[in-house]
Amino acid sequence: MTVFNIGSINIDHLYEVEHFVRPGETLSSTSYQQVLGGKGANQSVALAKAQAEVKHVGAVCRADQHILQQLQEYGVNTDNIAQVEQVSGHAIIQLTPSAENSIILHAGANHQLSQVQIQNVLESLSEGDWVLLQNETNLVAETLEWAQQAGAKVAFNPAPMDAELTHQVLPFIDLLIVNEVEAMDLADTDSIEKATQILPKQYPELAVMMTLGKDGVRYFSQQEDIQVAAFTVAAKDTTAAGDTFIGFCLAELERGSDYATAMRTACAASAIAVTRMGAAPSIPSLVEVQEFLAQQP
């Protein structure tokens, strides 16, 4: 089985700073890195490092061949990444000593996906394949509907959140992956508990995976409600925490793991990732995750 990740690819410009720059302030950074990023690319790298078969569908600037090379080195299939004249997507990231981040995004080539490109990919689906999307590319609503019609299992991570769009596409989704703020926003409530009740009633076929930061993750549907605790670590950079979780969780589900096992493995992967700097470079291998889990009580 394969995960087709129709998602963003960014060049991340990462600046370590003492505090977030204030209006009118010029601030010197203490370090700088340029690394592969974007929610889509990060999730593809996580899937590959979790030893899933992943084919990325996206777009980059024709001049940025090094991006394709980096993805290939991680084990991501890049045959379905278009090369366009538009500048590649990129992000300006400020990172403080307390591991907080502030991010400015420019979509660039991420908004150059075409209907022909996407539908050609969906025509190649096999039974049991997953289609994964985030909300950093164009044609999101259309792609989710096409993916369901093509018979794929569909996972959607609607970040950055657009509640109106997400409600529009929920009937096409098998697994919705959100954080607690996004879940409460979708359920129009200020209570996590109410959100876990409202969403399954509104969308009976939907399963929701809700990440809770230091409190772990919760999976809920009309049939199940499972919570898995997070692992306590000293965080340095949380940029790729959610993307690492999603990639490892889907990889485990693809291998036939139950949701509790998949979430625990994914929490372990995220715990390792946040102790490292950068987005894609921080994502651990499956062997590292297995060794980490073996050391837990």
TrEMBL record:
Its cofactor is Mg(2+). InterPro entries: PfkB_dom, Ribo/fructo_kinase, Ribokinase, Ribokinase-like. Activated by a monovalent cation that binds near, but not in, the active site. The most likely occupant of the site in vivo is potassium. Ion binding induces a conformational change that may alter substrate affinity. ATP binds at N179, T211, L212, G213, K214, D215, G216, G242, D243. It catalyses: D-ribose + ATP = D-ribose 5-phosphate + ADP + H(+). It holds the Pfam family PfkB. One of its GO terms (cellular component) is cytoplasm. Pathway: Carbohydrate metabolism; D-ribose degradation; D-ribose 5-phosphate from beta-D-ribopyranose: step 2/2. The active site is at D243. GO terms for molecular function: ATP binding; metal ion binding; ribokinase activity. GO terms for biological process: D-ribose catabolic process. Substrate binds at N10, I11, D12, G38, K39, G40, A41, N42, E136, D243. Keywords: ATP-binding, Carbohydrate metabolism, Cytoplasm, Kinase, Magnesium, Metal-binding, Nucleotide-binding, Potassium, Transferase. Its main location: cytoplasm. Catalyzes the phosphorylation of ribose at O-5 in a reaction requiring ATP and magnesium. The resulting D-ribose-5-phosphate can then be used either for sythesis of nucleotides, histidine, and tryptophan, or as a component of the pentose phosphate pathway. This is Ribokinase. The gene is rbsK.
